[in-house]
Amino acid sequence: MSLVKADVRVVKPADADGAAETAITIDPAEPVFAGHYPNYPIFPGVCVVDSVHRGALATAPAAVALASVESARFLGAVLPGDVLRMDLKWTRDGNDWLCGGKAHTGRGAAASVKLRYRAVS
Amino acid sequence: MTNGQIVTVDAEDLRLTLADTMDVDVEQLTDDADFIEDVGVDSLMALEVLAVLEKKYGVRFVEQEMRELRTFADARRMLTTKLTDS
Amino acid sequence: MIMEADRIRDLLPHRYPMLLVDRVLDAEPGVSLTAVKAITVNEPCFADGGDVAYPEVLMMESWGQAAGVLVLLGEELGDRVMLFGSMSGVDIHRRVFPGDVLEHRVRIFRALADTVIFEGDCRVAGEPVMTVTRMVMAFRGVTT
User: How far is the C-alpha of B31 from the C-alpha of B40, rounded, in Å?
Assistant: First the structure.
């Protein structure tokens, strides 16, 4: 259901403090690269957000649905062949859950993302 | 003529707004911490900060003023001047 | 000022499967724009079966591309690329599905040098499904 074929894997499930670690390998054969952009492949920023989101769903402390991208700051390019590692931190905010994600590749910071989730039954 | 209802600058509310936009803890945003040197704001974020302040307080900054906006103290002073002048 | 997909394709560097704006309904270059993207079950994101809710991030990408068209109607890209700088306060109000037509309403809040700040929302049948408090795009020269 995502445009990105590769799985986001859970490297470290959420611990008692809500810290988790996930990763995704950016395969040069990913379909998105054909269109973003022709002859100039860059992993789309929204796909970085999507990777953080999918990792969040896999490590969430409860059943949740995405309510808001509170912020997403794109700090560095993500390219074919990169391994995107994401350090996640879950915190409670009333009935919502916040997940902060710091994504980085071997070359440095890629993005800083804050997602808000609503608990669903 | 401003379109917002804010007429005075609540210092701690401003500090919280700035810290939130810069993605840092409010404690890091002391009165004299330089946004670029000390807080790590890049040019992209600086423009966002400007936009957030303009929207929140109903004021307008010109490019020259952007360069003068380096600390929390600068922000409070410049906003207060703009709100008093309007 | 209606623009069909071929004119949009001439403006944007994006191609399949990442060209996510179908038609511009109305535009005031450098100010605001209304554009649509129809969601169909025949899209690649639904190819593997499963949930037919459209990925929220693709709704954001589609909106961001509409924002890109708004800028490119007013100025040439030249040898610059358009980079996604950041987004803030992007609220999802409900899920969207094949059969929904996303109507993006984009306004330029501030433009300075090579950076543009956008705001607006996305509606389906007149009902807001996403609100964009702020999206920032940067235009940067390509360094080789």
Answer: 15
Q: Does the CB of C141 have a partner CB in chain A at under 8 Å? A: no
User: CA torsion, points A34, A40, A42, A46, in degrees to nearest 10?
Assistant: -60
> Which chain C residues are within 8 Å of A44, Cβ to Cβ?
18, 61, 84
Return the CATH fold of A9-119. Answer: Thiol Ester Dehydrase; Chain A (3.10.129)
**B11-85: CATH superfamily:** ACP-like (1.10.1200.10)
Active site annotation includes A36:
yes
Characterize the bridge pairing of strands A108-119 and A96-105: antiparallel
pLDDT score for B45? 87
Contact B22, B72 (CB under 8 A): no
Q: Is the pLDDT of residue A97 over 70?
A: yes
How many Å apart are CA C60 and CA C68, to the nearest integer?
12
Chain B CB within 8 Å of residue A69 CB: no
Token output for C5? 């997909």
pTM: 0.92
Q: What residue type is B19 in one-letter code?
A: A
Domain boundaries, chain A: 9-119
pLDDT at B86: 61
Q: Is the ipTM of this complex over 0.85?
A: yes
> Could you give the strand order of the β-sheet that contains A64-74, starting from the edge strand earlier in sequence?
A9-12, A19-25, A83-93, A96-105, A108-119, A64-74, C80-92, C127-141, C115-124, C101-112, C32-38, C23-28
- Collapsing DSSP to helix, strand or coil, C126 comes out as coil
- Map residue A103 onto helix, strand or coil: strand
CA A46, chain centre distance (Å) = 9
Interface test with A, best of B17, B21, B23, B24 (most A CBs within 10 A): B23
Q: Sketch out chain C's domains with CATH numbers.
A: 5-141 (3.10.129.10)
B45, A71: Cβ pair inside 8 Å? Answer: no
As a 3-state breakdown, chain B gives helix, strand, coil percent values, each rounded to 5, of 65, 0, 35
Q: What's the CA gap between B25 and B18, in Å, rounded?
A: 10
